[in-house]
Amino acid sequence: MSEKYLVQPDLKFIDEITGFGAETLKKCFQCATCSVACPIAPENSPFPRKEMIAASWGLKDKLIGNGDIWLCHECGDCSDLCPRGARPGDVLSAVRYAAINEYAQPKILANAVKDPQKLPFLIAIPAIWFAILAYITMAGGETMTKLFHNFGLEWSHGGHDVIAHANFVSTWLVDITFVPLAAFVVIIFALSLKNFISDIHANAVAEGKTDKTTIDPKGFLLAIKDVLPVIFKHDKFNECEANQDRATAHMMVLYAFIGLFVVTNIFFVVLYIFHIPGPYSQLNPVKWLANISGAALVIGSALMIKNRLSKKDQVSSYKDWYILGLVFALGATGLLTEMTRLAGSEYLTYFMYYLHLIAIFNLFAFLPFSKMAHLVYRVTAMAYASYGNRK
Amino acid sequence: MSKKYGVYICTGCGIGDVLDMEALVDVPDEEGINCTTHPFLCSKEGVAQIQKDVNDGKVNAMVIGACSRRVNFDLFKFDGCIVERVNLREGVVWPHSREKYPALTEEQKDDEEHFDRIQMKAEDYIKMGMIRVEKVKLPEPYKTETFSRKILVLGGGITGISAALDAAKAGFEVTIVEKQSKLGGYAAQMRSQMPVAEPFEQLITPVIEEKIAELQEYPNITVKTSTEVARIAGQPGEFTVTFKKPGEKIPFDVPFPLPPEMLLDEKGNELDAEAQHAKYLEYNKGRLDILKLDPDGELYGAVILAAGWRPDKLKGDTYAHLGIDLPDVITNDEFEKIAAKGKIVRPSDGKEAKEVVFIQSPGKDEDDADFPYCGSVTSQVALKQAKYVRNDYEDGKAYIIYQHMRTPGLQENFYKSIQQDNGIFMTKGAVTEVSNNGDSLMVGAKNTLLGQDLNIKADLVVLANGMVPVTVDDPVVNLAYRQGPGFRDNDIFGGYADSNYICFPYETQRTGVYAAGAIRRSMTIEESIEDATGAALKAIQCIESANRGVAVHPRSGDMTFPEFFFQRCTQCKRCTVECPFGALDDDEKGTPKANPTRCRRCGTCMGACPERIISFADYTIDSIGSQIKAISVPSEDDYDEPPFRILALVCENDAYPALDMVGMNRIDYSPDVRVIPVRCLGSVNSIWIKDALAQGMDGVILIGCKHGDNYQCHFVKGSELAEVRVNKMGDALKSLALEEERVRFAEIAIDEYDKLPSLLSDFVEEIEALGPNPFKGF
Asked: What is the DSSP string of B443-477?
C-alpha cells in the first residue's frame, strides 16, 4: 500500500454512469452508512462506500475492474438508509453496466445496445434478416429441397398437414443463424473474461482484498463449482433482506432460461440426429418443461417489471427496461406462437414466431453488451471472490 | 435618605416547616425592627402587603427572607427602596433537611450540648441581611458632562457598512472611517461570493456594491475615506476622537504605556509615579498624554470596530512540505485576486490552470489542525473557488483535500450544490507533499477516503490561508487609555477583539467598543452582515445605558459605579493596573481618574485597593465586612463542642446560581458554611478574609469562575486575580499563626453544580482536621 495512487478522474465516465442511472452519485459524503447497512459486504474493505467515492471522482480504473461491484445484488438497503439520497445501490448497478460496456467487443455494438436511439436498428437487423429467411423458405422451397438433396439432406422439417413453423422459416436457416451467433457470443465472452479476470485480480491485489498473488486455473474452476450452488439457490440474493420478492422473480427467470436451454438442446438432437421434426406432442415431458419454462419466463419477467414500476425509490434506466422488456417479449411471443399454432391460426402464429425470432436474436446477439451479461460477470466475480478468499 | 427598616419572611416553600419561625422573627424583633411573616410572600397579596407598607411610609429598606434573589426579582422590586433578599429557601431549607438535622426538643434548646445548625444558618442570614440594608445606600446615576449619541464605525468593509446601515436605520448618526481611499474592503475585491439568502446554493455577485449604494439613502451616515483614528479618548457617551490621514504623525497620536522593564530603575526597583510619568513622556515624545483632550476632536457615544482582517503569511518549516515557495503554490487570497481579474491562470507562466488542488490543512499527518485563523470560512471559500475552476474550464478539475469541511447552517446547501459538480472532488486527507513535477505540480496525500495514498497532478495548488484579525498587528482602536491603546492580553483570544466569546458576543475588553466581523473571528460575508447588526445593537445599548448612568453589560442596568475616597489614596496604581477593562486612568501623580461609563462594575478595583477607599453605593468593603461580622461564631463558651464556621465568598455569576441549583436538587452540604455572593471574585478584598479569620471563623473559601484559557470569568480577569491574591495571603496568615489551608480558592462552572456540595463539605472536613480557629472566642 506504500505505492501512491495517481488520481486521474474521468469526467466522461461520470457522465456515462450518470446516464446509466447513477445521477445521485455526487451526493455521497462518505459517511459509510451504506457499507454498514449492506448485508453482504465483506468485512475487509467493504463496499459500496469506496465505490461511491471512486465513482464520484470518476476513477474508472478503480471501478471497471473491481470485482466487488459484482458481489452486490442490488437489494437497495444502502439506498434506503443513505442519509444523503446518494443511492449507492443504483450507482453500483450503473457501474456494472459501464463495466459490461467496457469489456464487450466490438465497441460499435456495445454503443448501440446502451443507446435507446439505436433500438430501432437493433430490432431492424433481425427483422430484415428473418424476413429474408422467411422469403427463402416460403418462395424457394423447391430449389432448396433440390439443393439439399445433393448433400443427402432433407430440406423440409415441416409437415404439410400441420401448421409447422419450419414451413415459415426453415429450421435449417434458423439454426444457421443462431449456432454461429452462439459461437460469436461465446468468443466475445471468452475474450472479455480474459481481461476481466486479470483486471479484478489486479484490483484485488492492489486493494488488499485477496491473499492470492496469481490465478491458478484449476483452483479458479473449482471455485466456480463452489459458487454455482450459491447462485442456483440465490443464497446471496436472499441475504439482501429488502429484496425477497425480487429474488423469487429473478429465480423464476433464471430457471426458465435453464429449462429452455435444456429443451432447445434436446430438440436440436432430436431433429438433427433422430430426424424427428416438430411440432412435438404436448404429452412429451420435454414439451412440459418447455411450457413450464415459458410460463416462468413470462411470469418472472412480468413480476420484475411490476417491481421496478412500483418501486419509486429505485432508479430504473434504459439498460434495465431494455433487458426486462426483451425477456418478457421473448417469453410472451414464445407462448403466443405456441398458442396461436394450437389454435390453428396459421398466419398469426407465423407472425408471432417472427417476433419471437427477433427477440431471440436480440437476446443472443446482444447478450455480451446488455445488462444480461451480468450472468457471466457476476458468476466469474463471485467465483473469484471465493477463490481469492474475499472476506 | 432616612432608612425605615422592615423584615419580611415568607413561610411558604417549606421555610415555615423547617425553621422555628418564632425564633427567627425574634432576630429582627430584638433589634426593634418590625418583622412580618407571610405564608406566600410572592403572591399578589404578599407583594401588595409590602407595597402598602412602602406606600404608607413604614419601610424603605427591607430584608426579604424568602427565595433566592435569582428568582422573583421582578416581584420584589420596590422603587426607591433598598431591598435585600435573604436566601432562606435555596440556601437553607432546601439543601438541609430535618431528617438529617432534626429540630431540637424543648430540653435540648437550653443545654450547652445541642444546637440547631439549620436554624443557626437562617438566623445568621437574616442578621447579615439586616446589616447590609443598614450599610448600603441607594445608587444615583452617573452623568457625563457632555454626551454624544453618534456612533463611530472603524472599517468601511462589508461589516462596517452593514453596521452603519443598521445603526442609521435605528435613527443614529454614524461616521464610517476607512483607511483606504474607497469603501468596500476585501468584499469588493472578489469575483463572486457565497450565497447570503435562500436557497443558499449558488455563487452570487458580491453584495458589497449594493450596500455601498445603499449608504447614499442615509443622510445620517458620514463616510471618511483615507482616514484613520489617531486616538479615541474619554469614555462611552463622550469619546473624543481625533482623525488623521493614514501615516501622518500628529500630537494626538495615541501614546503607548511604558514597557514593564522601563518601569524600573537601574537597581531593579520600581520607579515612583512621577519618575515613571517623566519617563513615559520621554518615551512618547511628540505624542500628548492620554488625559489631554483634543479640543478639535469629534464626540462619539460608542464605537463599532469592524477593521477586518488580512491574509496570514505562511512561512517556515511548518509549511515547507507544501511547497510554499513554488510560484504555483498560492493562497486562497492570491487565487481570489487572480479569479477577480479573469480566467484562472498560473502565476508562473500565465497558462490556464485547469487542475487545481485546494489544501485545507497543513497536514503531514501530525495533527488535523487547519491553517491558523481558518474557521469555517476557508472551507466555504475552497468550495467557491473550486467552482471558479469549473466555471472557467469545461474540462477543469478541482480537488479539495480537507481535514474539516465546515459549512455551518444553511451553507450546507451550498456544499451540496458544489458537491454535485462532476469536476469537483473532495476527500479528507493529510497532505504530505507538494512538489514540482515537470511542467506541473504533484500533490501527495495520505489517510484519504480513497483508502490509498494519493498523488494528484495539479497546475495550481491553493492553500486555505487564514484570516488574521488586524488587531494582531496593531491596536487599531488607539484608545487613549492608561493601560494602552489596544486590547490587553489579547493573546488569550488569539488576537481577536473579544472579551468573552460565548457569553458576550461583540463585547471587547473595552466598554463602548463593539467588534463585528472578521476582527472577532473569521467570518463569511453572510455572517459578517449578521454580526454587524449585533454590534450595532450593542453600540446602541451602550449609548442608551450610558445616557442614563447605568452599566451596559454584563451587569446591565446597574446604576452604581466606583467611588473613591481620595484623601486616603496612596497612588499605588493597583486599581488602574488591575481593572480588566482599563476603566481607570491615572494622572502624573498616579491618582486614579475614574471613567464610570467605561466601567463594568465588577469591583476588581475594590478588591485590589489596599487602602479600601473604593466602593459602590450598594457594595462596599464595609457592607460585606459587616455581613461577615454579623455571622455568629459560637465558641466553647456557648457549647461544649461548638460548630465550625466557614465563610464562602461566592461569585454571583456562575457559582451562586450553581449553589442555588444544589438547593433546588435538595443536595446537602455542610450547614456550617455561610455564603455571601460577590459581584466577582475580583472584588474580594483580602480584608474580608482577614476579618473573618480574626473573628474566629475557621476557614474561608472563594468560589468563582474558571480562568486561564477558555476562561469563564464574566470580567475576564476577576477569578485569576483572586487566586493570585489568595496565594499571596499565605504569609500574612502565617504571621497570625494560622494555616494557609484555611483559605481556599476554587473554580466552578455553572454546569458543575453537582461538584459543589462535595467541594464545600470536603473543605469543611479539612478545616475540621486542622481544628478550630485559635482566635475563636476572643
From this structure: EEEES-TTSS-EEEEESEEEE---EEEGGGT--SS
Q: What angle do CA A364, A365, A370 make, to 5 degrees?
A: 85
Domain that holds residue B624: 619-778
Tell me: ipTM over 0.90: no
Chain B residue with minimal CA distance to A8? B456
Give B358→chain A minimum CA distance, Å: 15
The DSSP annotation for B77-115 comes to: --TT-EEEEEESIIIIITTS-TTTSPPPPHHHHHSSS--
Segments of chain A scoring below 70 in pLDDT: 1-2, 158-161, 242-243
Cross-chain residue pair A11–B444, CB shorter than 8 Å? no
The set of residues, in sequence order, having a beta carbon less than 8 Å from that of B363 and lying 6+ positions away, is B401, B403, B429, B430, B431, B432, B445
CATH code, domain carrying B50: 3.40.50
Q: Count CA atoms within 13 Å of residue A7 on its CB side.
A: 37
Q: Are residues B134 and B163 in the same domain?
A: no
Nearest to A207 among B421, B427, B451 (CB): B451
pTM across the whole model: 0.87
Convert the pLDDT of each residue in B479-532 to its tens digit: 999 999 999 888 888 889 887 767 788 999 999 999 999 999 999 999 999 999
- Which amino acid type is present at position B687? I
Task: Indicate which of A29, A50, A57, A207 best probes the interface with B, i.e. most B CBs within 10 Å of its own CB.
Answer: A57
Cα angle A316, A320, A323 (rounded to 5 degrees) comes to 160
Look at residues B597, B615, B633 and tell me which one is the last residue of a structural domain: B615
- Asked whether A360 and A330 are in contact (CB, 8 A), the reply is yes
- Cβ–Cβ < 8 Å for A384, A200: yes
Residues of chain A with CATH 1.10.1060.10: 11-103
The set of residues, in sequence order, having a beta carbon less than 8 Å from that of B79 and lying 6+ positions away, is none
Q: Which three cell numbers stand for residue A111?
A: 454503443
Contact B453 A1 (CB under 8 A): yes
Residue B478 in any domain: the answer is yes
Regarding whether B165 and B186 lie in a shared domain, the answer is yes
| Same-domain check for residues B330 and B372 | yes
- Distance between B746 CA and the closest CA of chain A, angstroms: 43
- B440 and B520 both lie in a single domain: no
Domain count, chain B: 6
- Measure A39 CA to nearest chain B CA, in Å: 21
- CB atoms A58 and B422 under 8 Å: yes
A50 touches chain B (CB under 8 A): yes
> Does B551 fall in a domain?
no
Interchain CB distance below 8 Å, A5 and B454: yes
What per-residue confidence (pLDDT) applies to B501? 61
Of B399, B422, B449, the CB nearest to A26: B422
Contacts A57 to B, Cβ<8 Å: 425, 427, 450
Q: Domain check: are B320 and B436 in the same one?
A: yes
Please report whether residue B143 resides in a domain: no
- The CATH topology of domain A11-103 is Fumarate Reductase Iron-sulfur Protein; Chain B, domain 2 (1.10.1060)
Residues B629 and B511 in one domain: no
CATH of the domain at B369: 3.50.50.60
Residue-wise pLDDT tens digits, B158-195: 999 999 999 999 999 999 999 999 999 999 999 999 99
Q: Do residues B115 and B200 share a domain?
A: no
CB contacts of A204 in chain B (<8 Å) are: none
B601 plus B664 within the same structural domain: no
Q: Within a domain: residue B558?
A: no
Could you say which of B420, B453, B457 has the minimum Cβ distance to residue A5? B453
Q: Over pLDDT 70: what percentage of chain B?
A: 99
Tens of pLDDT along B108-141?
888 888 999 999 999 999 999 999 999 999 999 9
Q: Which residue in the set A4, A8, A26 is minimally distant from B419, CB to CB?
A: A26
Q: DSSP string of A253-270? A: HHHHHHHHHHHHHHHHHH
